[in-house]
Amino acid sequence: MDMNLKIHRFVEGKKWVQDYKLTVKTGMTVLEALTEVKEKQDPTLSFTCSCRSSICGACAVRVNGNAELSCEVLVETLMKRYKTDTLVIEPLGNFKVIRDLVVDWDPKYATIKKIKPVIEPKKEFSLETGCKQSPEEFNKFKKYAKCILCGSCVSECNKSALNQEDFLSPFVFVKAERLVADSRNRSPQEQLKAIVEAGLWRCFNCQECTAKCPKGLDPAGAIEKLKESTFAHKLDDNVGARHAKAIYDDISDSGTLDESKLNIKSEGLIMAALRAPMAVRLMRTGKMNPMNGHPVNPEIETIRKIVKNAEAASKEAE
Amino acid sequence: MSFLHVKLGLKVEKETVSLTSNEEEYYMSNGISRRTFLMGAAAAGVAIAAGTYFSWNGKNIPEEVKKGDVTYDVLVIGSGGAGMRAALAAAENKGLKVAVMTKLQPTRSASTMAQGGMNGVTKVTDKEDSVESHMFDTIKGGDYLCDQDAVEYFAENAGKNIYEMDYMGFPYNRQKDGCFHQRKMGGHAHARASYFEDRAGHAMVHTLFEQCLNHGIDFISECIMLEISMNGDNLNGVIAMDMRSGNILGIPAKTIIIATGGYGRAYWVRTSNPYSSTGDGIVAGMNVGIPFKDPEMVQFHPTGLSANGVLLSESSRAEGAILVNKNGERFMAKYAPEKKELATRDIVARAIATEIEEGRGIGEGIRAGVYMDFRPIPPERIRERLGQVWELSKRFAGVDITKEPVPISPTCHYSMGGLEMADFHTGASRVKGIYVAGECSCVSVHGANRLGANSLSEVLVFGHTAGDGAAAFAKSNNYAGSQDKLAEDCSRWKDTFEEVTNRRRTVGKTVPEIRDAMVNTMWFKAGVFRDEQHLTEASKELEALEKEYSHCYVGDNSHVFNTAFYQYIELGNLLQISHAIVQGALARKESRGGHSRRDYPKRDDKNFLKHTLIFKDKKTGKYRAEYKDVVITKYQPKERKY
Question: Of the CATH numbers 3.50.50.60, 3.40.190.10, 3.40.50.620, 3.75.10.20, which one belongs to the domain with range B58-297+416-642?
């Protein structure tokens, strides 16, 4: 079976898409296909890889628009998934490209530093005698200790595509949750503060990171958990948290969102006033009418029950 | 105290800053002519390497390194477990300048792939455990080629390092009393391996990396070491290429710690090691006079996938998978009548190699193997306990092991040999200022065969030790190197780069062609089985390959992330490593641990209870073997039986 690779090339300022033809072999991964091109057809094609067993995180690329660990995913699988004999290979999204499929990790490492990426062990623990932790406490964060720093989660992150300056890459939130939920940590207060400042509430909730993580770590879930922790640690005096609380209050009280007050509750009167032109536009199109009383959903009792059950379920999950 | 790219680094920097605003231009960096020649000395009046400098786009290198404004007290080469542990230890000494250099990014190392755990006597799970027991198991496992004083130091310190990692945040699997849990690995009498699921190495590397980030340790990433620069007996520093810009860096350092990992890639596809295990540090160390100790000691794991060498866990056989040859015969009974498939790694690896050699294997050449058949195991148990094995077989060999057998063959797993560590209390090599740690070193703790979960603990113990040792040296010594010589060496490498990368297609074989020929030589003539005739042939073939290497075709002359040149450097290193393996194997006329001579099938303590030291002559480039006695303290050699 033959296949075509369309590889996005970028060398010293020149950009182009280059076509290569290959014969598909059993068990041929995307990385093996790239390697074959480099060794047999074009030594100038550049990419990075190391372990070829999906643990080192060096080889993630974008194939037909989606991030993949190239050492892990089979060419055949992708050809079937996309019903095509042509695979388009690009560097990961939301990274600066250095050359071909090689991307720049430095800005990402710099953002890890923002969250103080270590635990500060409780006073009773020491370097000489280690720490204590129950298996249950260990279970709370172990999933998030499995991030391999491959960058797949950030590749299609919509928030990162808009602006990375005021946000952390999804994997940094995974690391953060791993530290915040670790019972050995004296207090996650400092970390949570840093995380809120670094953009916790700016996540779009689009779930692309969770869909792309090759290790199934659910970065979007980690972000939600971190948000919950900010409430538990009284770090809820910010727009995001107030917005979430306002929505919660509206839904519990009336079963509908009161758009005219939501903004004021979230951002405060002055900031909200600056958004007056938007309010005027909303009123004009009939999407918001401050003169009318806020309607109550006729199914309010059912809605309250749902909220109650959801709260009970999340407590149980803990 | 500046030097080298001094002022020109600054100049270049200024010109590039304005470009970064636009992403397109950021890449293009047109502000700098590709051939800006800057000759002569800088304003500072120190010698400058004549040559071409290119725009520094990345933050992969600290600014002061680019400017030549720093002399490191401790420069660690390699960012695996040993390297980062060493850096953390050295950085505890406030005021010392410490950096970790890596040819990749910090978490892409072989340590990350380690699965089982790290050994250390803590008695948290098994009260009966003792330092003596760990020591004895290690020595017996190493077929008595271990230096027993070093093993004692190792066993005494391994436990401490496990507690330290706990305090640093390693996500240990826990037991009910809140302590980390320890499990028993093959060849050990007690449960002493602490772990995180089946990804202990990954957890270790990431924990250390986070600590390094938090301590603000400098990383010099994506820089491949080309050479250690010496001025007579004094260390100048390290010559490296920045992958991003193609600039050749001369980084002055009072001490360096070589922690570059093993050399499994000498067997290329027949290894479970990452692409990066090319013995770079060992070669650089040999070239400045450090001997390569016991290079012939390579551990072969019996069950790698024939397709690509990826490991299928030992638990496959433990759960009941059997080995079958081309004729459907379960052959292990011939080699180990009682234990059959459950015999030790070396015995099973040799049995498989024999079957293949005698024509009862499947497939051909480097990918020949035998079948591993999982069908005696109920499918639900395969799904429950061998999930990863199922997945790897399915993915790489296209085989559903619940329905069909999968082709496997031995795969190079670990390098016991390495740069001689002259003093295990400090990690020092025999060359002043150069320290060694981890798989690239030979302490010798593992002797002729390493036991499971001893490698991660070695990395921690001796990484820590070497970090302390190098820091102590740096504190009590001034920089004695010559920056002129460092600049000279830089300049030479610049010329090499230009010459090598601009060769025409017609000059000779390609890098992958020579590498594949090397692998055929190494696998069939210096692999699981060795003998005089094949090793002599191998030596000649390698010499011929080195000649071809000297005029091989690289095929890429770009200065930006030139992975073709990078692979050219790695191949050069692998060829030298292969030579040393063959010389060591020729010299050791006995069979011990991972080294198996058909013509000398027995262990010979009378003549070979000693280490091989392979030196490379600086002038002639010839290899020479010397011997060094094994240190025996508590345990007299006995026949090794399991």
Answer: 3.50.50.60
Q: Are the beta carbons of B558 and A38 separated by less than 8 Å?
A: no
Q: Residue A238 has what pLDDT?
A: 83
State residue B53's pLDDT score.
61
Q: Is residue A225 a contact partner of residue A177, using CB atoms and an 8 Å limit?
A: yes
Where in chain B is CATH 3.50.50.60?
58-297+416-642
Mean pLDDT of B31-51: 29
Give SS3 for B515. Answer: helix
User: Among partner residues B104, B169, B555, which is closest to A119 by beta-carbon distance?
Assistant: B169
Radius of gyration of chain B measured on its C-alpha atoms? 25
Answer yes or no: is pLDDT of B590 > 50. Answer: yes
Nearest CA-CA partner of B450 in B162, B157, B187: B187
Q: Among the CATH numbers 3.40.50.450, 3.40.50.920, 3.40.228.10, 3.90.700.10, which is that of B300-412?
A: 3.90.700.10
Whether residues A100 and B561 touch (CB distance < 8 A) is answered with yes
| Contact assessment for residue B158 and residue B151, using Cβ atoms and an 8 Å cutoff | no
Determine which one of B265, B345, B588, B603 is catalytic.
B345
Could you say which of A44, A50, A57 has the minimum Cβ distance to residue B555? A44
Chain A nearest C-alpha distance from B560 (Å): 7
Q: Which of B203, B510, B564 sits opposite A145 (nearest CB)?
A: B203
B515 catalytic residue (yes or no): no
| A11–B contact, CB cutoff 8 A | yes
- Give backbone dihedrals phi and psi of A282, rounded to 5 degrees, phi first: -60, -40
For the domain that residue A48 is a member of, what is the CATH number? 3.10.20.30
* Domain termination site, one of A70, A102, A134: A102
- Convert B283-338 into a string of H (helix), E (strand) and C (coil): HHHHCCCCCEECCCCEEEEEEEECCCCCECCCHHHHHCCEEECCCCCECHHHHCCC
Verify that A53 and A118 share a domain, yes or no: no
The closest of A79, A81, A69, A84 to A31, measured between CA atoms, is: A69
**Which residue on chain B is closest to A117 by alpha carbon?**
B210
ipTM for the predicted complex: 0.91
Residues spanned by the domain of A247: 239-317
Contacts of B559 in chain A (CB under 8 A): 12
Interface test with A, best of B85, B206, B221, B509 (most A CBs within 10 A): B206
Contact B58, A106 (CB under 8 A): yes
Q: What is the pLDDT of residues A184-208, one digit of tens each?
A: 999 899 899 999 999 999 999 999 9
Q: Which residue of A has its CA nearest to B80?
A: A56
* Residue B276, min C-alpha distance to chain A (Å): 6
- Residues of chain A neighbouring B276 (CB-CB closer than 8 A): 50
- Which of A102, A127, A154 is a domain's end point? A102
Q: CB burial class (10 A; 0-12, 13-18, 19+) of residue B328? A: exposed
Residues A136, A251 within the same domain:
no
Which residues have CB under 8 Å from A1's CB, separation 6+? Answer: A23, A24, A85
CB-CB neighbors (< 8 A) of B30 in chain A: 13
Residues of chain A with pLDDT under 50: none
Retrieve residue B23's tokens. 């992403």
Give B147 to chain A, closest Cα distance, Å: 27
* A225 lies in the same domain as A250: no
Number of domains in chain A: 3
The model's pTM is 0.90
Contact between A43 and B23 using a beta-carbon 8 Å cutoff = no
pLDDT of residue B34: 27
Q: Does A104 touch chain B (CB under 8 A)?
A: yes
Q: Which residue has the tokens 């406030």?
A: B94
Give the residue-averaged pLDDT of B586-594.
96
Cβ of A106 and B221 within 8 Å? yes
